[in-house]
Batch of 2 targets.
Target 1
Amino acid sequence: MICRVAVLALLLVAALVPPALAAGGGSTGRLLVSLEQRGERGEPVAVAAARRAGSAVPEIGLVTVKPRPGESLRALAHRLRRDPRVRSVQAERRYRPRFVPDDPALTDAETANGTPPGTVVQWWVARTGLFEAWDLSRGANALVAVVDSGVDGAHPEIAGKVRETIDADPSGAAGPLVDETGHGTHVASLACGGSGNGIGIASAGLDCGLIAVKTDFSDSSVAESIVEAANRGAQVINLSFGTDGERATPVAVADAVAYATLKNAVVVAAAADQDTAEQGDPANIVQPTGTGSDLTSNLGLSVTAATFSDQKAAFAGRGSQISLAAYGAFERGSGPRGLLGAWPQAETVFDRGTSGPPVTPACRCRTTYRGDSRYAYLQGTSMATAIVAGVAALVRDLNPDIPAADVVRLLKETARRPAGTGWNPQLGWGIVDARSAVEAARRLDRRPPVSRLSAPRRTRKRTITLRWTGEDTAPPGVEASGVASYEIWRSTRDRAPVRIARTRRTTYRVKARPRSTYRFFTVAVDRAGNREDAPGRPDATVRALP
């Protein structure tokens, strides 16, 4: 089971700065005009011809204006930009308060020895860019399946978050809402645990829902778990476990992963918890050997663990099977040894240890946080994988039109790494960056536009005037690219339709022959290249009379 246990230590952190303000509250309908000359009260004629609105700051050459009646904002901006005394013209935005959940682990100060001052319990949240990401997406409509040892369904970080359960454990153990080891509860709490509830921790995916899947980690059980999770509509499937990779990958598990991707699920698997280039199954299924540096060659994401200093954790996997990284440890030999997460109330296998084989010592990972002993510190690629799963949930919630393959690529492309660098064998494409990922998803238009054509039913004229309307829509919070053009299609005498024109206009005239019947429809194409599907029946049928 991929998880390095941590010694008892509280990741508490010096209080964050009071909530900042975030952009994105919408446009004010005004323009920010920055002048070449600063510190002067005079204004160019172009600015004087606009309506003053908002603030003026002579020290930095700022004037705020809005259009006069009858002039559009775009026309005013165009006129201002032609004036050589104007340095820049930008649409003014309105800020809104930054959203910060009230979970105390986001602000409580860390007390473990060796931790830099100002570190908070959930230090990885800010460093992953989650506060900014949560301003745009809170994950409420995303569903993450955690295939693991089950979850403690009574835990306050889990209760209310479980949408479905799947029992793929044939051993006869208690069901998916009982976790005998603690691992599944911890992973689930980092991915989609209760957030904004005033207790404990916040999860990466904030408000995302959970499918709790209990497995005995046998090949057949894992294959069943993945397939069932995909069938239940999981948009993200978290696999925080693996093998040593010494034996051939079972066809059944590879088939299950492929099935899940065909069902449009983002499969996220943990890399090895040892410094090796072989990550074992299922990580080496989603990112096969030699493909890590290829953005397009994968069935999901293989995740290694990064530390507080943005380096690969000493215990974590590396090499060409690594997709990207997320925080899974603090630092070797100093500070808190792991990430704080939920833990079952009852004593677990990890608490007791096992007599083997192999012998596993007691983890001593359980801790009491704010008087509640249902928490523990664990470090490992398992924890890093859960964070990536939560970030993927935010992306899928914001922009449900993005297919799973594009989400995988987007998370790689937006991962944080030194400027000008690409993939490397230590951290893959870099450390997952929730802010950049969600921002990129907001600008990714994958929804086709729609259009509707109208025309007279009958005409004695020798031309037919076609008119149509079109619209390019997008999910809330996503930028629609806008309709670029329309195709006009026509069929006669039950023949297959043919395209007769492509235009940006919304009217078109075609010639008509007497005693002929014509059928028309339009297909809209937007600036992102999305193409409207042809309708099942024509928009309009026109009969040309004698």
Note: Residues 27-93 form a domain with the Alpha-Beta Plaits fold (CATH 3.30.70).
Target 2
Amino acid sequence: MKYINLGNSDFKNTIENKNYFVDKSLFIEEVIKTQAQVLLIPRPRRFGKTLNLSMLRYFFDIQQPENKMLFKELALWKNQEIFKLHSNNYPVIYLSFKDAKSNRWDETFEIIKSEIISQFEKFAFITSTTILSESEKNIYNSIRSKTALNTDYQRSLKILSEYLYRYFNKKVVILIDEYDVPIQSGYNDFYDDVISFMRNLLSGAYKDNSYLYKGLITGILRVSKESIFSGLNNVSTFSILEPEFADKFGFTEKEVLQIISDFHLKTNFVKIKEWYNGYCIGDTNSIYNPWSILNFAATKNERFDTFWVNTSSDKLLKDEINKKESNLIRLDLQQLISNGSIEKEIEQNFVFPDLKKDTDLLWTLLLYSGYLTATEEISRKKYKLRIPNYEIKTVFQDIVIKWLKTDVRIYRSLLDETTNNLINNQIPEFEYNFRQVMGDTFSYFDTSTNPEFVYQSYVLGLLAILGDTYIIKSNRESGNGRYDIMLIPHDKTKFGIVIEIKQTEKQTANESKKQFSTRINNLLDQALKQIENKMYYKELLENKIESNKIIKLPIVFAGKMPYITKITDGV
């Protein structure tokens, strides 16, 4: 059995050491055949971007013709015409900006310069030839020695590609990995500096560069700032919303089944799918998180864990969600946590500073970062979004629970007690605790517009901590209508729950306690009759829940106060 070398993104090292490798070599064929000269392929972190770029590097590199044999047992080997025309036929400039992150521009710039210098060192032998003039050698060596002007570093890739073309008499391939890391790093402190430098660097490399054969750029986002790619009309973007290269990043179901077979995994495939599947890329469904799958296959006792989630703190995302004015964002998250979907506009070009004034950009960031997936294109810019799998769901559960604990000071113990009251059919106790939770938290929410959505989304979010033991659904057809919320237990001996929510005004100044009680009790009766008459519980019966194990729960919100049991002694 081959060894999984986790974290190794060097293609040559992987193949020569006979480490486990999921064959994505046909990615090379697709890159060559596409009419695009420069490709920008944004994908979430740990989705195979670096390994694929490394594979391209070894395939194209003219300095190492022996690397052709690395592909002998891979799918690309069948296309010998590709090898004849392109294998080890181009000088390759390869840069990775994955480490170019600091809270200061001068430090970040030093890291970027060091990466550029590494490429000039790689080809330093050309300074010993006659292809460069003395002044050109001086520029070359000043870049190597860090004495060059900043403008020389901005033009460095254009300079190097011209010199390599002269030496090899071959056009160059320029590969840039994680181009947006320094941009994200400078979001708050030096955004204009890093954008200006990166725009000039990329323009030099890719715009009107007659010495270029192919260019490929990877990152998470397509970053725009008056645009970082302004004037680069030869850059084609293939995002997760596009069909091209859909199966070349992340694992397909066929590949995951092969991994299960190769490592003799005994875990129920349905559970593996629930935890790590769910991404839609272009028109390709059922893409799995590759980092999580490989980590799972490498664990002892086949232990499920949040492998991908734990590779980053994602402070930017959490900061945006936890802002005081983010109540509508939290309601959308609660809808998502309960296995629902939301419709949002997605921007193809992302401008970081706009995130401060346009909260809807958060959904673009969540989508491209891999925390959401797009299941349907509604209109030109609007997409239906959902959480792809259980691993990602835990992130949002933790964010919502942390917000409740820190900002609202609702402790997890109260949330657990409240939900336990519900699922054990202790309705008076549930009502008491539920009112306490609602009283402490609903001041954060504006219920003046679309109150039914607010109430329903909030209750869904509260119940989301039951996600391990219950399937939570909302606004689905059952019987002769659409229920508001349904909880279907995995354990069929537990209670199933169907909830109908009504909303009314709170007690008015000229309304007696008796009149108010009558109004609330009538609405509770109406909600309960609606559940019965329209047989909202039918789906629970179909899921083999006994009729005596079905809780039919009406909830009436009067203003922000919930009523579940009938009022008997006034308010």
Note: The chain has a mean pLDDT of 89.
